[in-house]
Specification:
Chain lengths: 220, 214, 270
Amino acid sequence: MSFDFALLASFAPAIARAAGVTLFLWVVCAGLGLVAGFAIAVARRYGPRFVDRLLFVPVEIIRGTPFLVQVFLLYYGGPYVGLSLDNMPAGIIALSIYSAAYYSEIWRAGFAAIPKGHVEAASCVGMTETQTLFRIILPEMTMLVLPAMVNMTILMLKETAILSIISVPELTLTVSAIGTQYYAFVESFTVLALIYWALVEACGAAGRYAEGRLARYRFA
Amino acid sequence: MSWELFWLLVEAARLTILLSVVSIGVFGFLIGVLVCAGMLSDNVWARRAGRLYVSFFRGVPLLVQLLLIYYLLPSIDLDVPPVAAAIAGMSLCTAAYQAEIMRGGFAGVSKGLVEAADMCGMSRFDTFRRIRLPIAVRLVLPALTNEAIMMLKSSSLVSVVGVVELTRMAQDLAASTYRPLELYAAAGFIYLVINVVVALLGRGLEARLSWGRT
Amino acid sequence: MTAPETAPEIPAVRVSGLTKSFGETRVLDGIDLVAARGAVTCIIGPSGSGKSTLLRCIAFLEEATGGLIELDGQPLGYALGPSGERTRLPAAAIRSVRSQVGMVFQQFNLWPHMTALGNVAEALVRVRRLSRKDAEARALLQLEAVGLAHRAGHYPAELSGGQQQRVAIARALALEPRILLFDEPTASLDPELTGDVLNVMRALATTGITMVVVTHEIGFAASVAAKIVFLDHGTVLVEGPSTKVFGKPRHPRIDQFLETYLDRGAATLL
């Protein structure tokens, strides 16, 4: 078995471009998911009861089915309901919806974890509901949900690899295409694994740093 | 959606369930306990090896792990059917998550319980096997059930290495019948049902192992 | 200065010059202690005096930083050389010496996933290598002795604190230790439940087993202990029979200490 890593090195620019696509997908989808997830969590907690029950259904379906199946449903099934999407837009929409569902659960858990007493104290000193939300609830929640958020965000980075299956030109597709073309499978997938590993470790380190910096605000 | 098509999906789901039970419940759990024991051992190299294992298999997407194993095995003259590569890939991956979960469980075992075993003269090995392990697993049963559900969903990825489980069957049928919506929706439904069953089983196990607590 | 021993026996527990530090903090500062065979020795003192640490050193759950511990004449953990240097003993020797000692913890520490019977029988199966049947038969007898045979099939979560502690005592006794250590055995119990546990301990005291008890129960110590050791800030302040430690004129520190323990039987002494 000969390791032809030099071959991969020659493709460095293409791989860098693909990494860019992966990171773009990751940032955009995680970002949209975080915001949409927050909106869903707020609606479910502070909205009318029927909204909570209504949103329960899609959230549980998205969390209970494989991401790949959701991608296929959107990309291959979409055209049959008039939704013809290219692979990139389809990938972004699918991953955003997927992450929104998961993030919404983390936000919900965060809301539930704030001791009622803190909110009562805020109303006792005369704060409005909006003030309470932004000055008390959100800051406290951030510290509580940070580990779970970091975890989920790292998971989202790894999920981008699945979009290679519908030929989105991210890392996995690009590197495995190189491997296939030059018959260097083991080398290409090894390098691919190492790239993801490095990215994930970097995120983990950043997350731990952020948790450390915010640790002094922990009240538990 | 015709009954025959749905039944084909259900048959493929049997392979999904079998794969998952073997990879998550058997090999993944055993390897996970081993890696966890390594992370908790007194030997610094065992600890490093354990942490490295967990870091790698949680840091690389499962899809890439599966592809790597699928192409790696033939190149070292191990010609195995795709199912074997699928089981290997899933087991190694879930083991890393299970090891990390169980490590948290061991941290939750009160020191006093271990001291009591020590004062009763029990060996380190017996204390691990009879006291620390059962209590740790019970502590993290919800997290393990969650991991089982996540891995079950991830089993859909073995479709790319040619294993005809539920997702692959849906793909093949969608391609030949031009009915992707129904087929993927049906496949999703079946996954949902399996997950609900697993969640219920998990809660049943928790109840059974509650040892007199309400 | 200890009273001369009337019989040339080897004491069950002898501690000489024991020191223990946790980092910078010195918790035990040169402790000398002798617990006579077959007698009850109670260690009392204010919080932070080092009582639990001393007991845990005798149990070898903590390793002392200096000094010598001898159980029935055998050195525990470390041997003291002629010029005072400590050498750690081999694991087998440590294990053999420790096998004579049992311990009852403040938090009971019953294994939650086993029944009362299972808790008592476990060590008999693992350590004494009895068959499960024989072990359970022996365990049942032990539970009878503490009055809990009728609860043998219950899990710790289904037992009251006092019952759990009695099961813990049965578990320790099942291995037939020569020395039984008690680390504040009733401190975690509701007052109504301490009586049952203290009664079991009173009964045990008559069986000839050596007991070393760290406790806040002044009444129990005054009435049951052959020797009371009063610890303060890591040293032995006073020791001897109850009449010497609690008899007037008293060390002012003991007066101070008793004031805080009026509800634990100290009122009778003041």
